[in-house]
Amino acid sequence: MDSILGLGFLSNLLTSSLLFSSWIPGEHHTACLALKSGLNVENTTIIDVSYVPAGSKVATLGTCAERADVSVSLCRVQFFTNTTTTSVVHGEAWLPDEWYGRFLGLGNGGLGGCIDYGGLDYGSFLNFATIGSNNGHDGWGGAAFLGHPEVLNDFAFRSIHVEAVVGKQIVEAYYGRPHSKSYYMGCSTGGRQGMQAALKFPADFDGILAGAPATDFNHLVHWTNMLAQHVGAPASESSPAFIPSGLWKTVEAEVMRQCDGIDGVLDGVITEPDACDFRPEALLCHPEAALDTCLTRAQVEALRKIYSPLYGPGNQLLYPRFDPGAIYIPGDLFSGDIPQRSKDWLHYAVLNDTEFDFREYGHEHAVLMDEINPGGVAAFDGDLSAFRDRGGKFLTYHGRIDQLIPSGNSKRVYDLISRSLDMPSLDVFYRLFLIPGMGHCLYGPGAAHFGQYERGTNAVNASSHNILLALVDWVEGGAAAAPDTIIGTAEDGATRVHCRYPQRSVWDAVEGRFGCEA
Ligand SMILES: *[C@@H]1O[C@H](CO)[C@@H](O)[C@H](O)[C@H]1NC(C)=O
Ligand SMILES: *[C@@H]1O[C@H](CO)[C@@H](O)[C@H](O)[C@H]1NC(C)=O
Ligand SMILES: *[C@@H]1O[C@H](CO)[C@@H](O)[C@H](O)[C@H]1NC(C)=O
Ligand SMILES: *[C@@H]1O[C@H](CO)[C@@H](O)[C@H](O)[C@H]1NC(C)=O
Ligand SMILES: [Ca+2]
């Protein structure tokens, strides 16, 4: 059994004592279908219950994906919960035959609206009873928020709480006993939801895995809009500052030329982007330069702003800078228009004016977003004392070439919590792993696979290489099992140790690899 989930002493303990080894074939099936009439959860309607054999593809709820993979045999419960008279959360519980007693809630992405089916498959594969929801509305966009403040509340803080409250009851009804420990996993908006859960409902989860959290959400939206504006959005055709996508390749190569070697290795990965003092003027056109590989003064000026932190008029920091090394995403920050998620947020949640013209956008809108803070979405609050005092464990990670949420924000959040709780080191309950060479939540030239998101990546079975399993070890094994490092695996199979902030990742020329230094 422990080869399936190489968790060392903990998994041995749990697999031997808690597995439903006494169930005979077919019994899962019968118990599953019995839930159709046997579930009675407040405000909740069961849509369907079905037993799904390993290796199936199933139709999904909602419009985000057509079909989903099911890797292990499980009981699937689809439901909706009325959170108020004007709002409803749709969700699914995937209850694997082979259950180790653990509960796992899942987050969402962007402004969605989309049940994380990849996460349901991954969680149930790792023997968690796994619950995902649609965040209170369907699809990737934010139109559902307009005129529906309770739908906004589901998105801002409530849907994950519904997963915990409703999901735990479904789990108990099916397996005939309550879960042992509860976990949460999400990235981006899912990271913000994890932070929100720890702040607002500190008893919901014993362990939270929150990737690239979109915390200080309103300022993140403002930063997104200002970066787009630096290159001329939303009317970039007429802007001398616009940088065409082809020229971004030149910029990225120049960033690497200036900063790749700072960490001692020319490997296409900038270990510490904050040590990179990128000078865009190196690309300024001079008479001999080829015009498609050099920049005008206006373009250089735009880059200078992009690679600087965003300050308000009173010189207060609003958001950290774009990480040098982060790679251009077509259709996003620098494509010449305001990204759709930002438009939706302003149109449907903040201004309630679908005609708003982004040529009018400015700092006053940041002030307005701060004032309204729809649903308390910001989740920028360092007081995690209730979560800590319950014994909760929080793991977070952030790719250092994140193109959508700068990794500096996770350092800033660490420092905010540290100040708020008066704890110079948060190691006893909160650990941040910074991942060199990883983009937003996953992928990149670095060692970007460490079990953070989905199946199908290398080395998912060992807690040394899998941050979700590392969280389980920490919650269930206590301080001695806290993760000091996480080993990531790159596309080519090479591995690298990732360090917890504020430790630094340092090249060891003797060993020929990176290690961590306090
Ligand atoms: C949920 O709301 C719908 C629509 O308002 C209503 O028909 C249904 O009875 C409610 N269900 C529960 C379980 O409260
Ligand atoms: C059930 O719905 C009522 C009324 O809409 C609400 O006040 C209550 O909090 C809901 N309970 C749960 C568990 O969501
Ligand atoms: C827009 O609507 C939301 C609720 O859906 C509300 O919180 C916000 O204050 C409204 N914005 C303005 C500018 O009135
Ligand atoms: C992980 O476990 C699965 C299922 O037991 C197995 O197929 C796979 O080979 C294992 N992977 C590793 C890296 O051990
Ligand atoms: Ca390097």
Automatic annotation (TrEMBL):
GO MF, any single term: metal ion binding
UniProt keywords, alphabetically: Calcium, Carbohydrate metabolism, Disulfide bond, Hydrolase, Metal-binding, Polysaccharide degradation, Serine esterase, Signal, Xylan degradation
EC numbers, comma separated: 3.1.1.-
One Pfam assignment: Tannase
Keyword Kinase: no
Family indicated by similarity: Belongs to the tannase family.
Name of the molecule in the record: Carboxylic ester hydrolase
Record lineage: Eukaryota, Fungi, Dikarya, Basidiomycota, Agaricomycotina
